[in-house]
Specification:
Strand order of the largest sheet: 7-6-5-11-10-9-8
Radius of gyration: 28 Å
Low-confidence stretches: 1-57, 503-516
Helix content: 25-40%
Oligomer: single chain
Length: 516
């Protein structure tokens, strides 16, 4: 009897870190000649400023909102009102004199926390300033020590707005500026309208700086003017019915039924009933439902001139900015129960995307139909047509390694991107454009060497999306390895963002999941 070899897997690895994305628009902008002769001067109410006229921003010093302290001390205020306010409302002011001394201690501690937060908010309001001008965004704090944070617009990767429930009640928002590896800067709190205007200002200047033409001396030339921003266009929105359908008719359903059955047995027969077991079931199921429903409530993806805005949340509303040219990889997912409802989820790996938790990070479509997937893909990669990519399967001998998912493990490549289909119960389609690939790897285990197959991994920025091609023939894997390195090199050396990632018609996703 022949025993399988026991030597450890060997890997052939070649890694190449992609250079930083070249700034788009390196060509000198040409101004059209101005007409000569007399000009008609319209009445003042009808005059429209010329788009060529660039008026620099005033270096106006601004401060956070004066209600910052109240927004920060909301937990203590809520506890104070809940515990003591209810007692006073039910029993009157006479109940204060009858309170236990221990409750007086708690009341004192809560009041101290509230007063400290109010005082600290007032101090921060008086000692924190920020300035947004044409060159940079600056945050200065001058209390016990002086701290000045200067953020160049070219370093900004995203600008996010968060509104907790107390902040929403007060009409306030916090602004987080993500600058990648250098960390982010958070500005708390601004009025809602000012926070949105500041985000639009920062994103517009970030784009304007990136598109600044370079002169012959290598220095940036005069920056183009900032045009008037048109209103946002909603790409896709998730209705409550779709959200509930996607959450409950999914792979979560068996866990939900099992958890409710365990609760029913514990309550009915008293078997195994403990507060620890009850808490584990309740918090396990409730935590997942809270993450999926509350955090994704009223999700909508909007397209704006500076990129994309994702807004979600029932109590705490977050609005994330997303630049399409920083998306590295996309995955389209559908589990075995979602095939009954025809819903999909879309995740992306984004360079510099901040915020979110393990369930919502990189999620650009919580639950949606095929048409929703089409619109989401068209919002950032409109020129990639999945239907036009020819798919290849595994060699027949690889059936021993993936007997159930053999027919689902497919891959394809064209001049623009690599696509991989895999999964038996839960199906996933992964896309990585050649321009976004950072390294490629071939791996072979003992059984794979015996069957003369290998797996190929394509690496991008770390994130929720990863790509691997299952069990290619060894010769085919080596050929793909060499050709993909060449395709990635050519794509990275091409100046500017290619048209298929930004300017072509939207692809169709009919037949996206074969057999669905």
């Amino acid at each position: 009897m022949t025993h399988p070899p026991t030597d450890p897997p060997r890997k052939i690895v070649i890694r190449r870190t992609a250079p930083t994305e070249a700034r788009a628009g390196q060509h000198e902008a040409q101004r059209p000649p101005q007409p000569s002769g007399p000009r008609f001067i319209a009445p003042l109410s009808q005059q429209i400023p010329e788009p060529e006229a660039h008026i620099p921003l005033r270096k106006e010093v601004e401060r956070p909102h004066p209600l910052t302290g109240i927004a920060r001390s909301w937990i203590a205020l809520f506890g104070l009102v809940l515990v003591f306010g209810r007692d006073v409302a039910e029993r009157g002011l006479g109940s204060i004199a009858e309170m236990n001394p221990f409750l007086w201690v708690i009341l004192g501690l809560v009041l101290a926390v509230v007063l400290f937060n109010l005082a600290w908010g007032l101090i921060e309001w008086r000692t924190t300033t920020f300035v947004a001008d044409d060159e940079e965004f600056r945050i200065e704090r001058d209390f016990l020590s002086r701290d000045s944070s200067r953020i160049a617009y070219t370093k900004i990767q995203s600008v996010d707005i968060e509104r907790s429930l107390p902040a929403r009640l007060l009409g306030l928002s916090s602004v987080t500026i993500d600058v990648g590896g250098a960390g982010g800067k958070k500005l708390e709190f601004l009025a809602k309208q000012r926070a949105e205007a500041l985000r639009d200002q920062l994103l517009a200047r970030m784009k304007r700086q990136a598109e600044a033409p370079i002169g012959a001396d290598g220095e940036p030339m005069e920056l183009p003017p900032i045009p008037e921003l048109p209103p946002a266009h909603t790409v896709v929105s998730v209705k409550p019915v779709t959200l509930f359908k996607g959450v409950f008719i999914s792979a979560f359903l068996p866990w939900l039924v099992g958890g409710l059955a365990i609760l029913g047995v514990m309550v009915t027969f008293g078997e195994g009933f403990t507060f620890a077991a009850l808490g584990g079931v309740v918090f396990g199921l409730g935590g997942y439902l809270w993450t999926q429903i509350v955090n994704n409530w009223h999700f909508h993806l909007d397209r704006v001139p500076d990129g994309l805005h994702m807004t979600r949340g029932l109590f705490t509303t977050t609005s994330q900015s997303l630049k399409a040219d920083r998306i590295q990889a996309v995955s389209i997912q559908q589990d075995y129960l979602q095939r009954l409802t025809g819903l999909y989820r879309v995740r992306v790996t984004v360079l510099g995307l901040g915020g979110g938790d393990g369930q919502t990070s990189g999620l650009v479509l919580p639950y949606g139909t095929r048409d929703d997937v089409t619109r989401v893909l068209a919002a950032f990669w409109p020129g990639i047509d999945l239907d036009a990519i020819e798919l290849h399967g595994q060699p027949s001998r690889a059936r021993w390694l993936t007997p159930l998912g053999f027919r689902r493990h497919q891959w394809g490549v064209d001049d623009q991107t690599v696509v991989a289909h895999h999964g038996w119960l839960s199906r996933t389609i992964t896309l990585v454009p050649h321009r976004r690939m950072q390294s490629i790897e071939i791996a072979q285990g003992p059984w794979q060497r015996r069957l003369r197959v290998a797996r190929v991994f394509l690496h991008t920025t770390d994130g929720p999306v990863s790509m691997n091609l299952y069990h290619l023939d060894v010769t085919q894997a080596r050929q793909f390895f060499d050709e993909q390195r060449q395709r990635a090199r050519i794509a990275r050396n091409t100046p500017g963002e290619p048209g298929y990632l930004s300017a072509l018609p939207a692809p169709s996703v009919e037949g996206l999941i074969p057999g669905s």
